[in-house]
Structures are given as structure tokens and as C-alpha cells.
Known about the structure:
Shape: globular
CATH architecture: 3-Layer(aba) Sandwich
Bound molecules: 2'-deoxycytidine-5'-monophosphate
Strand content: 15-25%
Radius of gyration: 17 Å
CATH superfamily: P-loop containing nucleotide triphosphate hydrolases
Amino acid sequence: MNSRKVIAIDGYASTGKSTLAKMLSRHYHLTFIDSGALYRGVTFFALEKGFLKDNELHQKAFRDALEGLDLRLEPAGDLYLNGENISQKIRHPRVSDDVSTIAALPFVRKFLLHQQRQMALENGIVMDGRDIGTVVFPNADHKFFFTARPEVRAQRRYEELKAQGQETTLEEVLNNLLHRDQTDSSRDVAPLRKADDAIEIDTSELTTDQLFTHLVEKIDAK
Ligand code: DC
């Protein structure tokens, strides 16, 4: 595959996007970028610095602070905020609860849009997110859109969080996913939606290996 290829995987929360994007990146020697991690990193920053506190957002101060923000996603997937590795911290339920609110802010999207496009300049990429095929890379070579039943997604995410030692319940995880889907789909700027030319896949009944084989077949056939 051409080293400057772009593969976009969009879809609902916890449908397997990042896992598959990572597998495809290895298979095709492309850089993997989890765009959700960037939105989570900015949300962590807003919470830690108190720009978002008690559900109140200090927009002007937050916007100004973003200008000096050093957010770096390493090729191995680790996320650094001003030099600190925050890869684990961005998975905390506190971040999950507020990330959709922060991701709906037009100035946050503009800031990260630029970063995401810069990342594709040097090497081909596999990027997963919500608006990759529609807004970030509308000319991507391959576009996929993942869906799955909410109960299946909640169970998967719950097991991941438990394995990381996070305290949570299946019900909390399900509520968070449904809330995020709703906020992500209804925002004004770059809402979650399938690109017209994306291939839609329901991942509920597929194993990771089955899904990987299916995607490789689609990509190689094009
Ligand atoms: O992929 P994830 O579940 O870690 O993403 C966290 C949130 O970030 C998601 O609920 C919405 C936001 N997001 C977005 O708005 N646009 C993207 N391209 C990726 C994520």
C-alpha cells in the first residue's frame, strides 16, 4: 500500500474503532492516530486547570490557554500534555463524562483539526474518531463507519475499565456511552455521522479477527 494512504474509521463509542485502527496500521505500515485521545487530552487539561468546574466552563480563559498547549501523541499511542504522560488519566470516567461537551466547542475542534491534518503530512495514517471521513479527511482513501448494539458496547468498555482497575458499574458505562452518542451526534460542528462513501459495519457479532479480515478484504479489493 502507498505510504501516504489515509484510512478513516468513524463510528459510535466503543465499537472497536481504535483496536481495528491499530491492527490495520501495523498491517499496512501506517501511523495509528486515535483522535478521541486528543479530545480526551484537551478535556483532561480543562478539568485539571479548573476551566471546567462544577459543570461551568470558563470559556475565554480556556480558549486562551489552548494556544500554549503542548499536546503530543506518540506513534506508540502515548499521549503527552506539556511533557506529562496522561495516557491512563484520559480514560478516567471523569474525563469520559465531560469529553463530549468539550468536543462540541468550535474552537476546540478547530485547534485539533489543524493538529490532526499535520499528523498526516509525513506518513500515511489510520485515524479513528467521529468526523474523520466527513471533515478531517473527506478525501480519505478508505472510509469505514462502525456501529454496534449499546449493550455489547457497554459490556466491552466495562471489561476494559475493570481490567485497568477503574471503579465503575455496567449501568454507568452504558449511560455514559448513550449520553456521548447523543451529544456527539447532535452538535452543530462536525457531528458524528456516516460519510456518504463510508462502508457501514455492525461489529456486534464479529470477533476482532473476523472484523480485521473483513476490513483488509475491503481495502485490498479497492
Ligand atoms: O474515541 P473516544 O470514545 O475515546 O472519543 C472520546 C470523545 O471525543 C467522543 O465521545 C467525542 C469526541 N471525539 C470527537 O468529537 N471527534 C473525534 N474525531 C474523536 C472523538
